[in-house]
Design goal:
Length: about 475
């Protein structure tokens, strides 16, 4: 298994090289050169596997034995998932009127990103220890990614992480999960702007090959292929749990999956698994930041004038950057077309998808957009009918369930991306209450540490200088934050 760029300028990269990268050197995103197929017989043989076992099986298809031997891979995944609050790591809850919810939020930061992030961090640790090297992780976040990335490598001696979050545009719990994580390898910046604003200087830093090489600069956003790979088991677990696979049936049953979508990493994983042979109907659900919905409905891949603040802040995104991977996948690897579309989008933030590509997208994806009022409605109704509390992002998916009848013979699953405990304001606005877990209550009394990035600052320069300072301090064998 080797990896290539969606824009055609890079081929033949190893999993290890892709793991330690952000964007590809040609500006594209890494994808496997070949997509393995899962036969119906394989799916039937996997139907009784645990989530952790499925993750091992999927990862073994994309990580060659000579890079991470299977016994090490199994140990690394086990180590990554050992801190989850439930033994099974994830679970499916069955509610009224055929509403099934896949809970992915039982990790340390109460968000689905803990699943992929914790495993990715273990892979990094494995290679860094083996090669006796260091790395510097650079992450922009719209809410949950930053806290999850920080916890996944908290205290690692071989890794520093620089996280940038949009000040005032995420919940207090999300912010304090980052700013109270005080360790010598944690560097947090609060930016006076949106998550899309943050992506601009980060792309420029990753586009500097000298900086990347000198400081081992890499990403833990879903720009990183490993993050996408480790989200494939979400969809596979849901499929095998909710669909009955008859031993002699000629066709496999379908599963419709409703996915709260921001940067489009999760929906990309779903598209890849569908390409691998799992019969999924994928619905990408967004809030009022509806670029992805407009893309599916009319081929209008264009940013709105600004990012709207909604009750579902983790998907307040106007640049769903993983759609580049979807375009590549659905166009059978048409790198020239992908390059032209994405370069135009990055230049003027507005592209009309080629008709053939739009048709290919529509064959795989459906979509919907939900207002704050719709989010609150879904939260209230789910509680009233089930006494089950959902976060506002999960409510974006559940809204579709309440407004679109389930197709006869098709199972349906909503992805629950975060605990409602992270979004207390939305819960209260819905007229509901919740008991906060102890780890959330404790955040209020903990010390914080972060640096501001003001609108007037040159963010690229300030972050570059901080990365260079980290490197010089580590080269001298010193502590970055002396006690």
């Amino acid at each position: 298994m080797l990896y290539c760029s969606t824009r055609g300028g890079v081929q033949g990269w190893s999993f290890r090289d892709v793991l330690f990268s952000g964007y590809a050197p040609d500006g594209g995103m890494f994808m496997p050169e070949t997509i393995p197929l899962l036969s119906p017989e394989t799916l039937r043989s996997w139907r009784h596997l645990s989530y952790q076992q499925l993750m091992c099986e999927i990862c073994s298809l994309f990580i060659p034995q000579h890079e991470i031997p299977s016994h090490h891979l199994k140990d690394l995944i086990s180590q990554a998932l050992c801190k989850f609050s439930i033994a099974e790591t994830v679970r499916i809850v069955s509610l009224k009127d055929s509403l099934s919810i896949l809970e992915l939020f039982h990790g340390e930061t109460l968000a689905f990103k803990d699943l992929a992030m914790s495993c990715t961090a273990q892979f990094l640790k494995y290679f860094l220890h083996k090669e006796k090297k260091r790395a510097t992780i650079l992450v922009g976040t719209s809410g949950d990614t930053g806290g999850s990335a920080i916890r996944s490598i908290f205290g690692f001696s071989d890794v520093d992480i620089v996280v940038v979050f949009p000040r005032g545009r995420i919940t207090r719990v999300q912010e304090r999960q980052m700013t109270t994580s005080i360790a010598d390898n944690i560097h947090v910046f609060a930016a006076d702007g949106t998550s899309d604003d943050i992506d601009v200087p980060l792309r420029k830093l990753f586009a500097d090959p000298d900086l990347v090489k000198r400081y081992g600069l890499m990403s833990l956003n879903s720009v990183n292929w490993a993050r996408i790979l480790l989200q494939l088991p979400h969809f596979l677990f849901a499929y095998l749990q909710l669909c009955t696979l008859q031993p002699d049936a000629d066709t496999l049953p379908e599963l419709e999956v409703l996915v709260p979508t921001g940067g489009a990493g999760n929906i990309t994983a779903g598209c890849i698994l569908k390409k691998m042979g799992v019969p999924l109907r994928l619905v990408a659900m967004v809030n009022s930041n509806d670029i992805l919905h407009r893309t599916v409905q009319s081929g209008d891949f264009s940013m709105a004038s600004d990012v709207k603040q909604t009750l579902a802040p983790a998907i307040d995104i106007q640049d769903p950057y993983n759609m580049e991977r979807v375009f590549w996948l659905l166009s059978a690897g048409d790198t020239e077309m992908v390059r032209c579309v994405m370069e135009e989008f990055q230049k003027i933030h507005r592209v009309a998808l080629p008709l053939t590509l739009h048709k290919q997208v529509c064959e795989v994806l459906s979509s919907g957009s939900v207002s704050d009022e719709g989010i609150l409605y879904s939260m209230r109704r789910c509680w009233q009918e089930n006494h089950y509390l959902i976060c506002p992002h999960t409510a974006v998916a559940v809204w579709y369930h309440y407004n679109r009848a389930v197709t006869a013979g098709v199972n349906r699953c909503c992805i629950a991306t975060a605990s409602p405990a992270k979004f207390q304001e939305a819960v209260h606005r819905a007229g509901l209450t919740l008991d906060l877990p102890e780890e959330v209550l404790a955040l209020e009394t903990m010390k914080t540490r972060y640096k501001p990035l003001e609108k007037s600052d040159d963010w690229e320069t300030k972050l570059r200088q901080h990365i260079e300072l980290i490197g010089s301090v580590r080269d001298r064998g010193e502590t970055f934050y002396p006690k």
